[in-house]
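Onboarding guide, step 5: your first structure request.
Type a short instruction followed by the sequence, for example:

Predict the 3D structure of this protein.
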Amino acid sequence: MVINLSNKHSLLTNWIAELRDVNVQGDRMRFRRNLQRIGEVAAFEISKELPFEEVEVQTPLGIHSSKMLKQQPVLATILRAGLPLHQGMLNYFDKADNAFISAYRKHHTDGTFEICLDYMSCPSLDDRIVIISDPMLATGASLVKTINFMKDEGSPSLIYVVCAIASVVGIEYIHRECGDDIKIWCGDIDEELTAKGYIVPGLGDAGDLAYGSKMQS
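The system replies with structure tokens like these:
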């Protein structure tokens, strides 16, 4: 299942427009903050689907039966571009456990690339709800490799993917390789990919726009 949060206008669509806008992208702090805001909205929407339980809360004047999350999720992100989106989700799921994955494109001289996954730090994933944030779902290769790696490390009960912008190709690839039970939450969805695997119109390189350009080795 795929949820496109831009299908209905809200402040989120304004933030997506600013992420895309070359006249606004030069403000790195605003770029990071807009990604955080999208993460906050996604966290709030996802929270409506998570299991809860009734707990008794002592107030100064009595006891109230309140609804609370039955289990905190594991928030996972792909370094480095995913950090602002992850932080936005952590602002809302502020008691969540966290996982960090180093997955990146290793480019070759012929223009092709492969996905390298060098590192993951995470709690036990058995019977946990895992929410993976990555701002750009382009080809889907890095997310598929991340999802499969996490499944090898444990047995999550449910996996969500959160991204600012997704491509149709990437969404289809995730569902083809990982199953339709992976629910994808997107700030917006674009139709095209370039030959080098970048989303069109997209917004460019989210990691560079958030943190500055990087060397490619």
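Each response can be followed by summary notes, for example: The domain at 2-50+70-211 is CATH 3.40.50.2020 (Rossmann fold).
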